[in-house]
Amino acid sequence: MTATRIAHFITHADVEIDPAIPVPQWRLSARGRARHEAFNRHGFVTRITAVHSSDERKARDGGEILAGHLGLPVQVVPALHENDRSATGFLPSPEFEATADAFFANPELSIRGWERAIDAQNRIAAAVDAILAADRSHGDIAIVAHGGVGTLLLCRLLSAPIDRRHDQAAGGGRRQLFQLRGGDTTAAAGLEADRVLNQLPPALGRQQRSSIRHAAPEHRGGPVLRARTIVQDWRGTAG
Asked: Does 238 map to a domain?
């Protein structure tokens, strides 16, 4: 029997906010780096044999922490970038949150010049499809990217309208798992989303769980996006 393979879509954790430099050049903060290092302690990480990341600095930081732990190279995929917000650049938190609310609420409109949510969703879904279809490794796959496009991808996987209620927790750090049967990226399984908050290895903190189960509508867009999905928000730092 062929072993089940998993693709992990991982969103970067906390960043150093610096209004003086472009947002795509922001790095992980010390807390963000510690969270990624703690993430590496999960037993499932040892099964990862390929690491891909967005070309934005914060996602590359997360990808490098994971790949370095595993002795693997990071394969940079520009199409994994966050929704394009270059029209406004940095926005103070209240203004950013209001603009992000409008972005998710009006997916077919460009809010203040931002990339439309529907376009960002199509781009991230196609990028993930392409990565998994081209993969020739034999273990699990990690894709390190961003929270906004991760939420859009989750909505696509759930065959649900774009809605910010599916967004990750503040501070980032989410893992979405695409479980693939049959040992290749064309196999499909049922669709299920389990939301797991504060999940860390046993030595790092207690777990709180709540689950949301969904039907398995057929997704016709690509080779993998009908796969079973689990969602985790991972919190905290190494103790």
From this structure: no
Domain span at residue 78 reads 5-233
The model's pTM is 0.81
- 220 burial via Cβ count (<10 Å: 0-12, 13-18, 19+): exposed
* pLDDT (tens place) for every residue of the chain, 239 residues total: 456 788 899 999 999 999 999 999 999 999 999 999 999 999 999 999 999 999 999 999 999 999 999 999 999 999 999 999 999 999 999 999 999 999 999 999 999 999 999 999 999 999 998 998 888 898 999 999 999 999 999 888 888 899 999 998 888 899 888 776 444 433 222 222 222 222 323 322 222 222 233 323 333 344 444 444 556 666 544 32
Give the CATH number, domain containing residue 32. Answer: 3.40.50.1240
Q: Residue 239: inside a domain, yes or no?
A: no
